[in-house]
Design goal:
about 350 residues, mainly beta, Methylamine Dehydrogenase, Chain H, 5-stranded mixed sheet, 3 helices, globular, disordered N terminus
């Protein structure tokens, strides 16, 4: 028995080592088409990744700097690339609805996108089709657009596919949206969307609930409040949101945007802070310990207001928005990039 275990571990270690060695030759930065304002990133099959086009320049330009920008002409487009080769192309054309968080379901080959996160147009914040857009991840066809009401006062930000539902965060309200899935991840012919109030989730002025992560069963989710930096464990049955007790040098994660969960390790992309916090969580998600930041102090930092992250092998991949270049220049002439960091 012990010999069998030792042999099994040796094979696993060898496989991981070979994978890490192979990844050494993968690109450290992948350029995205000029003008594409990438915000959400997600893995697909094999080495595939997807990006969703937002309109961050129109959102932040006027809101914080008084520099008006129209909604991006590429808003709602989906880009599909390859982490190994760095090659890629726009898979799905613009829909006019900004895309933020993405989540992929391998059962159906569907890509879910949180949509409608608007921007400032002619001095007022405009919401455009809050909800979820479902894409065919191979053809790029839009399978279905699912609205969450008229969008007034709603800011759908991130989404996560689980075994029985797709969950979405709302940055302006302490609500969790649940899009019910049928067996095998199939979409019902008439979509069913439930609103789950998150009791215990503390709201402050501005943006609140942002990234979310969790296991495939979807019973417990982790959500970060981007303004306060508090991590919450959310019970999806009751909606109860409980702050996760964090120990260590850092306990709050202000600017917390996209989350990536691997085992019990949570990676938190802190956008304007240009760092990724690493937290080891307990099995019940009630407690955690801050481990480190990526990159470490004194290390080369390729992040430029990155928003969301994915993990593949021994690496993390983040989508840089290069937002200040967009705000103070012409957004249509700025290039985003996907950058690679070691875990």
């Amino acid at each position: 028995m012990k010999a069998l275990l030792t042999s099994t571990l040796a094979v696993v270690f060898c496989t991981l080592s070979m994978g890490a060695a192979a990844q050494q030759n993968w690109p450290d930065a992948i350029a995205i088409p000029i003008g594409f304002e990438g915000e959400g990133i997600e893995l697909g099959k094999g080495h595939e990744f997807f990006l969703g086009a937002n309109s961050l320049s129109s959102l932040f330009g006027e809101a914080f700097f008084g520099i008006p920008h129209p909604l991006s002409e590429l808003a709602g487009a989906i880009y599909k690339g390859n982490l190994r080769t760095g090659e890629g192309a726009i898979l799905s054309p613009p829909t006019g609805k900004s895309v933020s968080g993405l989540s992929y379901d391998p059962r159906t080959d569907y890509l879910y996108a949180a949509t409608g996160f608007g921007g400032f147009v002619n001095g007022s914040f405009t919401f455009t089709g809050q909800g979820v857009t479902v894409y065919d991840a191979s053809s790029g066809d839009v399978i279905m657009e699912i609205g969450f009401g008229d969008g007034t006062g709603i800011a759908i930000n991130d989404c996560l596919v689980t075994r029985t539902a797709v969950y979405c965060t709302d940055s302006f309200n302490p609500n969790l949206y649940k899009l019910v899935l049928e067996k095998g991840g199939r979409l019902p012919s008439i979509p069913v969307v439930e609103v789950i109030p998150m009791s215990g989730f503390e709201m402050v002025p501005g943006f609140n609930a942002n990234g979310l992560a969790g296991d495939y069963d979807g019973k417990q989710l982790v959500i970060v409040n981007i303004s306060t930096g508090v991590l919450y464990r959310v019970d999806t049955a009751s909606g109860e949101a409980s702050p996760i007790e964090i120990e260590g040098a850092e306990q709050l994660f202000v600017d917390g945007d996209g989350l990536y969960f691997h085992g019990q390790t949570l990676y938190i992309m802190q956008n304007f802070s240009d760092k990724i916090a690493v937290v080891q969580l307990s099995r019940d998600l009630s407690r955690g310990e801050f481990i480190k930041n990526i990159p470490g102090e004194g290390e080369f930092n390729p992040l430029n207001v990155a928003t969301t992250i994915i993990g593949f092998g021994n690496s993390l991949y983040a989508i840089n928005t290069n937002i200040f270049d967009r705000i103070f220049g012409n957004p249509a002439e700025v290039q985003s990039d996907v950058v690679r960091l070691r875990k």
